[in-house]
Amino acid sequence: EDQVTQSPEALRLQEGESSSLNCSYTVSGLRGLFWYRQDPGKGPEFLFTLYSAGEEKEKERLKATLTKKESFLHITAPKPEDSATYLCAVPPYNFNKFYFGSGTKLNVKP
Amino acid sequence: DAGVIQSPRHEVTEMGQEVTLRCKPISGHNSLFWYRQTMMRGLELLIYFNNNVPIDDSGMPEDRFSAKMPNASFSTLKIQPSEPRDSAVYFCASSQTGAGNQPQHFGDGTRLSIL
Predict the structure, then answer these.
(1) CA distances for A8 relative to A80, B35, B39, B105, B113, angstroms
(2) Closest chain A CA to residue B4
(3) How far apart are CA B92 and CA A42, in angstroms?
(4) Is B63 in a helix, a strand, or coil?
(5) Closest Cα partner for B65 from B47, B92, B91, B40?
(6) Do the chains contact at A96 and B43, CB–CB below 8 Å?
(7) B56 and A95: CB-CB below 8 Å?
(8) Is the pLDDT of residue B28 over 70?
(9) pLDDT class for A27, splitting at 50, 70, 90?
(10) Closest in B42, B99, B108 to A103, CB measured
């Protein structure tokens, strides 16, 4: 059964303390893995798409990487404004809809 | 560029009333998706359209829910009659194609409370 699992559920960091979020998937025939950021009261905001193992994408303090089984979202020297819930999503091979993970709630303290 | 626009942002109504949520996708996007988000179940896909045609409505909870897309720039999600368990945040998203390898872009949602 296709699944997307994110860990940890919640992460508290001090400002400047780097860490990584994990998204593991069992979807066969990967066509892309998508990372989103969601702020309270807002819709998910698209961050990155990764299409193949070994691919990396960067945006400010965020870097997303992809292997054949999982993706990591690395956060370098985070700031309080990076606090949000981060979601990953994967479309299964034969469907055009996304399977979303349950998200990691990141809290960065000043 | 204008993003996905949803209305209303908040809706509070009594059980049994009809609720209509509205969505305007990004211009030029061919696929539109309706999601529901709750703490317990996360983001759930309810239905998606490709070129205004419903493709998969297997996520619609029951017959009380219906969705339409009369043209490329407008979609509605209707609940009739509404029940307290329908309380959630409802999101609309659109993507350029229905190929599954394009990102979906979300609106800011409608927070629905059924009393």
Answers:
(1) 18, 24, 16, 25, 30
(2) A43
(3) 12
(4) coil
(5) B47
(6) no
(7) yes
(8) yes
(9) confident
(10) B42
